[in-house]
Amino acid sequence: MDEMLTRALLHGYRQVVRPGLFRARGGDAEKIHEDMIRALGIAGGLPGAVLGAGSSVMGTGKGVELAGISFPGRVGVAAGLDKNGLAARAWAGLGFGFAELGTVTAQAQPGNPKPRVFRAKQSDAVINRMGFNNEGAAALASRLDGWGVRRGNAALGIPLGMSLGKTKVTPLEGAVEDYLRSLRLLADKADYIAINISSPNTPGLRSLQDGDALRELTRALVAEAKVLNPSNPVPIFVKVAPDLTWDALYEVIGTCELAGVAGLIATNTTLDRKGLKGDDVRLADEAGGLSGAPLTVRSRAMVARIVQHSSLPVMGAGGIMTPADAQAMFDAGASLVQVYTGFIYNGPALVRGINTLPHN
Ligand SMILES: Cc1cc2nc3c(=O)[nH]c(=O)nc-3n(C[C@H](O)[C@H](O)[C@H](O)COP(=O)(O)O)c2cc1C
């Protein structure tokens, strides 16, 4: 029964909704995404009964306790899907157990010139070079304030992570202060903070994954979280790139453990272009990060390595296109999973399918 309903949802989305969605707005992937977020923003504002009904159809799975947070389900919205939190009230109703809003930066910024999102349909993948277009951390904070969101109060039904990045015009030497500004604006609303140092689309950002820079950044953020709430500091997660060598990954793990980071998120998008198939190969030269099916194996391998080398909990992201991919990510040791590209290609059925996995 569970499986039949998930299959029907998947079929409906892939055969009916998706073709229309992908063709709408002249096929402009970013405009369609904005329409979807706007529509979900409206749906999320409808009376609670509608969302309640939604989540009973979508199931939630068994939930998990992690870093002092109670997650009602193990599949979350990956960062970038709802950068400004416009649809934050809708995610619980779609069956998500948490949502990572952002990435936001200390200053609002427009991101890179368009076009900056490219669908690689034959490969079940996306290339994006958005460049942290967002309204800024203060705008997200005030939007969430308006909905009564406070850390731990589950005002929108699920825990909310908030992903922080560096403002493009801030030089790398000012990165720590830039992240601290965003942290101060959001720490009393976020159930966890994700430090995004792994987007390929802000020049130099990934160098913050290196030795001293990462040490300084993680220590400063963990210390500030304690200053802001000495008895119960907001947990800080670090999101890593799939392109790190194993040695670089081990160094990141060691630095994060010493700094008191609560966990890792693996992974962001890749610069690699392996996995592009057929006509999509023509997109290989587009600058940006590749997500979706080409990432599945690499992201899972990163999660497995982290789990072998550390006791830090891991959220697994990258190429989770099917419930079986999520199961494999859990089997590799991920405590939670996040989806972005799989949700675009397969819709809410993916969330439901993960929530109703036999062992979930
Ligand atoms: C269009 C787009 C925008 C993204 N923006 C962000 C972002 O702002 N912050 C971030 O940490 N990750 C961002 N990501 C990366 C995703 O959160 C995720 O880590 C990655 O896409 C791998 O998961 P997936 O294969 O399920 O998409 C973005 C991905 C896409 C496709």
From TrEMBL:
The keyword Oxidoreductase applies. It is found in: Cell membrane; Membrane. Signal peptide: none annotated. The active site is at S199. One of its GO terms (biological process) is 'de novo' pyrimidine nucleobase biosynthetic process. It is a peripheral membrane protein. Its main location: membrane. Residues 64-354 form the Dihydroorotate dehydrogenase catalytic domain. Substrate binds at K83, N128, R129, M130, G131, F132, N196, N201, N268, T269. It is an enzyme of class 1 (oxidoreductase). Its cofactor is FMN. Its EC number is 1.3.5.2. One of its GO terms (cellular component) is cytoplasm. It holds the Pfam family DHO_dh. It comes from the Bacteria. FMN binds at A79, G80, L81, D82, K83, T103, S163, N196, K239, T267, G292, G319, Y340, T341. Pathway: Pyrimidine metabolism; UMP biosynthesis via de novo pathway; orotate from (S)-dihydroorotate (quinone route): step 1/1. Coiled coil: none annotated. InterPro entries: Aldolase_TIM, DHO_dehydrogenase, Dihydroorotate_DH_2, Dihydroorotate_DH_cat, Dihydroorotate_DH_CS. It catalyses: (S)-dihydroorotate + a quinone = orotate + a quinol. Belongs to the dihydroorotate dehydrogenase family. Type 2 subfamily. NCBIfam families: PRK05286.2-5, pyrD_sub2. Monomer. Catalyzes the conversion of dihydroorotate to orotate with quinone as electron acceptor. This is Dihydroorotate dehydrogenase (quinone). It comes from Luteococcus japonicus LSP_Lj1. The lineage of its organism: Bacteria, Bacillati, Actinomycetota, Actinomycetes, Propionibacteriales.
